């Protein structure tokens, strides 16, 4: 576990990191390039330190986890789940992974195997939720069940708190508005309602070409 916490992420445009184990130098290669040029901003924008820590621990424990949102576009939900997978490096999620679960496939929530899923649109009713499934609502910051028995070691919470604090400005209203319209801004989809408000020069919406 010490290696897990001390292992650095690969440098930009690189997929290998090196560490010393005793008298040997060990090279770890990320062949999928999952961690390269990856932004954790969407992940920390919608989860508190407590929720992010709980989510991370549940994922490490290979539990059944669902990220749900009625307000965020499916594309952004996928980005958030991919950021979570990148956060697991050098480990890798080997179980069922469905970043967007179609409404007609809600029965998949009853799968006996661990899974990581995203649900967009209609909310998940507690009645259709098995007892061993945990849902993180990205719109409200709440979970189902509301009270979870998850022990988060400080060795996990502290680095995640630093990550979260490094992106505190994501909680500003202007940034919240940016993420809410992610599909229109980043994917070029036209607005379908009313007159669009003029973005502030200080807002990410006013700097779309420079947003990273």
UniProtKB/TrEMBL annotation:
Organism field: Cladocopium goreaui
InterPro entries recorded: cDENN_dom (IPR001194), DENN_C (IPR043153), DENN_Domain_GEFs (IPR051696), Tripartite_DENN (IPR037516)
GO biological process, one term: regulation of Rab protein signal transduction
UDENN domain residues: 1-212
Gene3D superfamilies in UniProt: 3.40.50.11500
Top-level taxon of the source organism: Eukaryota
GO (cellular component) term, any one: cytoplasmic vesicle
SMART domains: DENN (SM00799)
Positions of region (Disordered): 190-212
Name of the protein this chain belongs to: DENN domain-containing protein 4C
């Amino acid at each position: 576990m010490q290696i897990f916490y001390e292992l650095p992420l690969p440098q930009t445009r690189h997929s290998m990191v090196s560490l010393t184990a005793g008298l040997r130098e060990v090279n770890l290669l990320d062949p999928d390039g999952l961690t390269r040029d990856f932004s954790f901003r969407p992940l920390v924008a919608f989860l508190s330190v407590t929720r992010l820590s709980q989510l991370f621990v549940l994922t490490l424990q290979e539990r059944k986890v669902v990220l749900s949102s009625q307000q965020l576009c499916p594309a952004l939900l996928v980005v958030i789940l991919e950021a979570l997978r990148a956060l697991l490096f050098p480990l890798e999620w080997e179980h069922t992974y469905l970043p967007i679960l179609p409404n007609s496939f809600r029965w998949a929530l009853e799968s006996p195997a661990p899974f990581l899923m995203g649900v967009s649109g209609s909310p998940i009713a507690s009645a259709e939720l098995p007892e061993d499934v945990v849902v993180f609502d990205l719109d409200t910051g709440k979970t189902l069940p509301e009270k979870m028995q998850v022990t988060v070691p400080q060795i996990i919470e502290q680095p995640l708190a630093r990550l979260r604090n490094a992106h505190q400005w994501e909680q500003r209203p202007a940034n919240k508005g940016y993420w809410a319209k992610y599909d229109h801004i980043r994917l070029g989809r036209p607005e379908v309602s009313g007159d669009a408000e003029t973005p502030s020069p200080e807002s990410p919406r006013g700097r779309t070409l420079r947003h990273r």
